[in-house]
């Protein structure tokens, strides 16, 4: 049975100084991710959506027909990872989510009309409530990217719970245990992948 859903900010600042552009990283739910004015106020240029059951349309084009959906680009660079909030997602999806978030922070945009996005800017990781899927992914990311600040996944999770205002009586599902376990396994795989990337000494 789910615990109570507490009121908390639409988005929460979790970490700063990430990636080559020194981005700030936020966690939020659907309300924050769909509030363009809020994203602009926090210089958020990129959204990584972890939720399979939540879509956000940032495309500005309106074709005015039921047969053709809008396509193109909007003000926000948008990445989608379809994680289930509970059982059902292969653990490899958390690994993929890690590299999508890493790529979102590191991409440099071509200087062409079809890529109207500036390099840099801050990043929001969201799911429906910003309590489980996004928390697991950001904990994994911080642990791997800033191990001097977050030596373990538990260290990263503790900071996220505080900054996202996740209260102790909801910790049993913030994040859901199977998602946290997936992050732990992904952490081990990342170590193996990165070790193989190192040049032979």
From TrEMBL:
| Organism of derivation | Rhizobium esperanzae
Tyrosine specific protein phosphatases domain location: 119-164
The record ties this protein, via SUPFAM superfamilies, to: (Phosphotyrosine protein) phosphatases II
Give the protein's recorded name: Tyrosine specific protein phosphatases domain-containing protein
């Amino acid at each position: 049975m789910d615990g109570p859903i507490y009121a908390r900010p639409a988005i929460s600042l979790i970490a700063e100084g990430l990636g080559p552009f020194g981005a700030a990283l936020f966690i939020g739910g659907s309300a924050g991710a769909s509030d363009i004015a809020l994203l602009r106020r926090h210089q958020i240029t990129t959204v990584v959506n972890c939720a399979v059951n939540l879509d956000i349309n940032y495309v500005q084009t309106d074709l005015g027909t039921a047969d053709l959906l809008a396509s193109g680009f909007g003000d926000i660079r948008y990445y989608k990872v379809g994680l289930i909030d509970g059982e059902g997602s292969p653990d490899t999806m958390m690994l993929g989510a890690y590299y999508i978030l890493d790529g979102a922070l590191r991409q440099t945009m071509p200087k062409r009309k079809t890529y109207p996005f500036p390099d840099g800017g801050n990043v929001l990781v969201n799911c429906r409530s910003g309590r489980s899927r996004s928390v697991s992914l950001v904990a994994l990311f911080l642990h791997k990217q800033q191990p001097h600040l977050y030596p373990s996944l538990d260290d990263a999770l503790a900071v996220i719970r505080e900054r996202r205002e996740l209260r102790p009586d909801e910790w049993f599902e913030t994040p859901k245990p199977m998602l946290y376990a997936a992050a732990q396994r992904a952490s081990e795989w990342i170590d193996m992948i990165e070790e193989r990337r190192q040049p032979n000494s």
